[in-house]
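Researcher: Quick one. two chains, 409 residues in total.
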Amino acid sequence: MAAYQQGDRVAAEVLIERVSPQLHRFFMAQVVSRRYADDLLQETWLRIHEARHSYRPGEPVLPWIYAIARHTRVDSYRKVRRTEIREQQVDILPDPAQGTGSSPPGPDLEALLGTLPESQREVIVMLKVSEMTLEQVARATSSSVGSVKQKAHRAYQKLRQVLLEMGFGTAAARMD
Amino acid sequence: MTPQDMDGILAQAANRTAPQSDNSAAIARAKASLPRSFGSVRPMRAAWAFVSLFVAAFAAVALCGAWALGVRGLPVLSLVQRAVIFSVVLAGACIAAVASVREMRPAGGTRSGPIALTIGILAPLVAFACLFQDYNFQNFVPEGVKCLLAGLACAVPAALLIALILRRGFILDYRAAGITAGTLAGLSGLGMLELHCPILNAPHIMFWHVAVVWVSGSGGWLAGWIAQKAKST
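Model:
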């Protein structure tokens, strides 16, 4: 990132290659279509380029990038207003009994996350899909670690309920 | 179901949802969107440097405003009143300055604009309630409107100066930045009024002087909302 700030295009490309898959997963886990996620990825990198002076060398780069990414997503969401598609996603939960091809049977991430409120979904995606730490998520969302923990806890409570309704972990629940 | 069971299910679902291989086109597009060549940029200065800059802007505008309108309020205040009022206003300005700096940088820290505005209104209100006991409502509106307009006339240039400093960073949420900038500018107007206004009526000071911070903070939010709207269309 420091080399990028000094005008090194190769460093910028390396950064894009390293971080983009993670960012793409972040968008894919929350948006409706691949094309939309691709657009968000491009828009995020344009903003990162514009904001590159605001990164301070030595500080963790991931929260800085994710802070820009989540605002890009929110701004785009406000612009496009694809609420009706989102609602459709929440309604259609896949049948857990149906496995897809060779992959092990399990719930679809989008359907699971679709049951959560926006702020909780974002925290779960950052923690579980992007594999960020609590501190990194707190920085990226401009909130405190306690607030992130609380959102994650509430999301887990809701997800547990949804998973039990879908028939997952019933054996474990009975043992409790 | 334990959290570990759920971690496993979520990890499995995440792997199934996001295929690793087919985002190369999107990555190539992101790379291509960068300009062919671009110059170096100087990283932003440390947070304390910007906090100092904001507080200096707040103080400079308040002092210049009081100098232009006449320092008639300071001589009528007792030593204790001076110490308490200016300490509270300065502390409020420091909190608003820190909140503004946090808005200048992505992942800059916990968002605290609304807290800064609340403190900027409540702290002077409590201080004034403790310091002034004369509850006389004579000429409450005519004198009050004059003070409100004078305070806002001071807050506007302060806000412009603060906006210029804010532009040195990269603002993600214009409304939040507007609240912090408006609060700081309003406190500058309040500071000017404490130096300028010789009226020691509790209702006058508690309502009209503090209203400068309230109106300025709300105006900042509105300006931010308009800026955000303009940016997203």
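The two ends of chain A are 48 Å apart (CA to CA).
Researcher: Thanks, that's what I needed.
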